[in-house]
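so my prof wants the structure for this chain in the tokens format not the other one, which i didnt know existed until like an hour ago. anyway here's the sequence
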Amino acid sequence: MNAKRILALVFAVLMVVGCLAACDNGNTPAGTDPVGTQPATGGQTTFVPWSAEDIADLGANIQKEAAGNKITLKVWQPEAAQDVFKAQVADFIEIFKDYAEIEIEVAIQGEGDAGANVLSDPNTAADVFGFASDQIMKLAKPGAVAEVMFPNEVTSMNTEASISAATYDGKLVAYPEVGDNSYFLCYDKSLVTADQAKSLEAIFAACEAADKRFIMDAGNGYFSCMYLFTGGLATEGLEEDGETQHFNEYDIDKVTASVKAFADLFKKYSKNFENNTTSAVVDGFKNGTTAAGVIGSWDVASAKAALGDNAGFAILPTINIDGTDTQIINMFGYKFIGVNSQSKFPYTSQALAYYLSNEECQKERAEQLEWGPSNVNVANSDFVKNNESMSAILAQSEFSVPQTIIVGTFWDPCAALGGYVAETNNDFTTEAVKAEVEKCINNILDL
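here's what i got, hopefully its the right format
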């Protein structure tokens, strides 16, 4: 397999430049929960993505990296995923137990903050860490995340969109692990029909009839960018200066019409519309005050617990813009596994990242955590296709703008525009809305 040859070559180069650590990198800090050389727990069978020959070659290089000492690594993943990753890490250790003593600590760290923490202190940060796709530029530009050692294998396993999102400056710099880091529609099937869920106007009408609410985080820039995107604006990397957000060739009047359509609809159904967080949507399902709302993929389990058999999931609906039903376009991101470029054990870290992002590990996380896969085979599996929430969020990716290479100036102006749209007491004339849209875009461009 090509991966082992690439790993072997990279290992040899690393040895020449002296990048490998030949000793233990310290005792495990108090309060951590390292995984030692014990076999995988929970009675599951260890999945091995490599042949015996591949393992022998990989293991020999891991053995060289250990140089007679213990390899100690740290993995960062969110709290909800700790048990799954600890079991998968234990599987990896089991595979290579005859080649080196490996100890891996799986620690709690949310993907949203991982990038900033790696940059602030790379020497104490995790060797292998999960992070959100909008941090690609932040990590790759200064070289904080290592380039993937076997891009051909990783590319062949994952969706084209996830690979594109994991690429910076023509290089694959992360291993896709999740293909659903976004938001979509959740509704109470006892109050909203599947047909009504296709149209935002029909959803509001159902909410009005049932005296219930539709909730979305309308003033949050992550969600309110849908007003711009639905009108045809899209982010497309950076300008030549490498710092300013670049947009496509959009029509300002069409973007204005889109923003106005959302504002007018929220105002028309102001008694049924609530600007609130995704967790408020779930709370509304629990207390019976909410019929539908926009939730994140991270809210699926709690939404199912709140609604039971009445939990319905779908792509974002259409909205009528100047007489035309138009599909709502959102921001769609991914989650990746990155390798710290300052890792003292870069070879073993790369092998571990590859293992954790492989098909079987993604399948386990889909089944146990309902994480939507980026792996093509898992995404096309009967399990995912028969899972209403996962199939809906993956379908939403077709109607989205990728959440990659987003400048820091993007979020606050979008949030300000969202707050304007969500304030239903405003007089939403075309002129007034256009002025707000232009102000938002100019502020993103820092003009």
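also thought this was worth mentioning. Confidence is low (pLDDT under 50) at residues 1-45.
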